[in-house]
């Protein structure tokens, strides 16, 4: 799931999988969604 063998350091660092999971759970719990 994560590519830890990334050779280039350019760009933003990827989000941690656990952090993204927590964000999704909080958004569902508080009935939040992304603006479209």
How does this structure look, described?
The chain has one helix spanning about 15-30. The radius of gyration is 14 Å and the shape is elongated. The chain starts with 16 loop residues before the first helix and ends in a 7-residue tail after the last helix. By secondary structure, the protein is an all-alpha fold. It is about 35% helix and about 0% strand. The mean pLDDT is about 75. The chain is built from one helix and no strands.
Structural class: mainly alpha
**Rg on CA atoms, Å:** 14 Å
The topology string of helices and strands comes to H
**Main sheet?**
none
Please report the total strand number as a whole number. 0
List keywords for this structure.
0% strand, mainly alpha, 1 helix, 36 residues
Question: Would you kindly provide a brief summary of this structure?
Answer:
36% of the residues lie in helices and 0% in strands. The chain has 36 residues and is mainly α.
Set out the fold topology.
Layout: H1 17-29
């Amino acid at each position: 799931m994560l590519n830890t063998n990334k050779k280039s350091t350019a760009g933003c660092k990827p989000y941690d999988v656990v952090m993204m999971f927590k964000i999704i759970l909080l958004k569902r719990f508080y009935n939040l969604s992304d603006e479209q």
